[in-house]
# Entry
Amino acid sequence: MAATMNGHVTTACDFDGGLVLEQARRSRGTELASAPLPPLLRLPLCHGPSPLRTIVGTGERVQKGQLIACGTVDLHAPTSGEITGIALQPATHPAAPAVPALLLAADGLDVWHPHVVPVGGMPQNLEDLARRIHHAGIAGLGGAGYPLLAKLERACEAAQRPLLIVNAVESEPGMTSDEALLHAHAGEVVTGIETLCGAAGIRRCLIALDPDNVPARSALEAALGARAASSPDIAIVLAPPRFPAGSERQLIQALTGTRLAPGQRPTAAGYLVLNPATVHGLHRAVSLGQPLIERIVTITGPAIPNPVHRWVRIGHPITDLLDAHLPQVAAQLAGGELEVLHGGPVTGWPLAAAAVVGKQTYGLYARRPRWTVPRPCINCSRCVDVCPERLLPQVLLRLADSGQWPAAQRHGIEHCIECGACDLVCPSELPLLRHFRHSKSVLARRREADARAQAAKQRFEQHQQRASAQQKLDRERRDARLHRLKGAPTRWLPP
Amino acid sequence: LSTDRIMRAVMLALLPGALVQIHFFGPGYLINLSVAFATALSVEALVLRLRAQPLSALRDGSALVTAMLITLALPPSVEPAIVIIAVFGGLAIGKHVYGGLGANLFNPAMVGYALVLVSFPREMAAWPAPVGTPAPDAVTGATPLERFKHRGGLTVEDIWHGAEGFGHIGGIGWEWINLAFLAGGVWLIARNIIDWRVPAGMLGSIGALAAVAYDGGSSASLGSPLFHWFSGGTLLAAFFIATDPVTAPTSRHGRIVFGILIGMLVFAIRSFGSYPDGIAFSVLLSNAAAPMLDHLLLRRAPDAT
# Structure
């Protein structure tokens, strides 16, 4: 290992493909305040595709931080109030069906549950840390929402000492939620890194920043300078100023020079890539005992004249959030004149007006709906040049459009990381990303159906086997009985 | 950057070459151009109507680019009827029969040009003497490529100084026309609108073959690389026709091979074929080979299962 890099700032190498985007980070430097509490919060009972099981009933009073549903990632009451019922709620993802959601009427007192107290003492080992993470319901806050616990366990299984990469490179143009968090809470994030590394035995950590992210960089340098501990080794790395540097596979390539194999998870190669907000949540869970009930959301886009970031409770309806910030935007959203994207302008998808902020909602991007008429693909290969995974988007589009799934799989359609770089350069304005998302969901459904069919076949075969074994057993028993009665295995004759 | 902007940029880049060509061969091109544009728009509109497609597809300008390329490839003195047949053949048969823009296998401009080239050989060979030819002995005559091919037992030196119509490096006029197309093509490459690989492959292979066959200029010489580059439609084809992304291979290596193939075929047809120039047939044959080149050379996702 190289000499200690503690607090040093280095510049990363590069990754394949990608493109330079004009960045207008209009929300940079705006104050980070808490959004006012809405009267009613809606808490979808699912994390990604997996459902959560609620443990509270209608009419029950809950307090802030109280566990209200269990599953892959536990859900806690974001504020104190009363559970008024359960209702169907449009899922965050457009392709997902509606999900049941708990309705929580806030009482405005916002008091913590008495169990939420600092546990005291640092977690000494992975199990202790894992237990605390599990109780705090922490998911990846960068956008994918992958459960932190599962990620941590995978990384520690794959490598003795995984490399921790804190990915503060904004995943989308115009987004600044990571920057705002680091600017305001760099010390807590650094403490979180130390806690995590101490418990998991990680020795090295890289914090990746956008090269123009001066606010976060200065705050981090100050926090790193004030550190007492010398382990782990924490260094700041400036990512290449190209989109999609915030994508974890591309970031790993830029930082370490390693190209992950197609479909290989970073954790499988011993890289633990976490969003700073996730590390911040971990810090709060470990030192204050507070579960994850709020996150930073960037509210920006051409339709927002004064972009901001806000601490927003999970389950906060986006209309209330926009209304409190800028009433006319909420009205325009209701009237269909505006669309609000979940995430950023490149990979974000339009939200239903009834949508709420979830654990992975890092940004809301409001703009006028754009109507473009896609023209035919002219085979220009610009998408091939920018694809960071070195796929062939124009070929994939043709194969997926004509339903040639095996060929599309051979060309690696499932390794598309959905960064949207191809959309940005297509002269025919083809919605490539949308096609690929759809194709991937079709393939996933087909795989599920195949697995179900396989399981059914196996069940049937096992049943057949059991039945024939039973028949054989019955015959043997009968023969044995006859043998006992007649004394010899002769043919049985009716009397 | 959008498809219509790309088409507009291509037309803009064609402009210097077109102006030089008008300068040397007279304003007949202006009439042909207007006939070709009018035909292109009406054919495109008619076929879109027949295919029940929105007429907004007219706006992409690809039909106008095709019309412009066909006009610049034809001699200036051809009758309007031939221009109309060429444009109709290029757009209706070369493009829309395959499913319209983006789906055609063959370069529409070359389909139209080849159609009239084999249908009207006499008219297609009638090129006027370019402005600047000393004492032309007829209003129309053979192009330098033709003279060079049928020069009898003359050495290159002899024909260069003895026969009319030869300039410094190519034919009189032709060298300037090709130079103007080169300028337009380089601008397109600099603006990242066309891929440099196709012209590089094509000009490289023509140059290499010509250099090998030049033999210092004997009576059996097949012409110097410069003569092949700056005569006929070489540079127009290299930068504006062969680079059509729809009909070129997708893979990068494939595009180089595609260019090399065109160059080899052009040189072979010019040297051993019965036509003085072979751009159209070389491009069409290579278009037919493009899917196979992609099949052989297209990069797959690494280690994709």
Observations:
- The longest strand of chain B covers residues 127-128.
- The mean pLDDT of chain B is 87.
- The interface with chain A takes residues 1-3, 5-6, 54, 56-57, 60, 100-103, 195, 245-246, 248, 250, 252, 298-305 of chain B (CB under 8 Å).
- The longest helix of chain B spans residues 3-25.
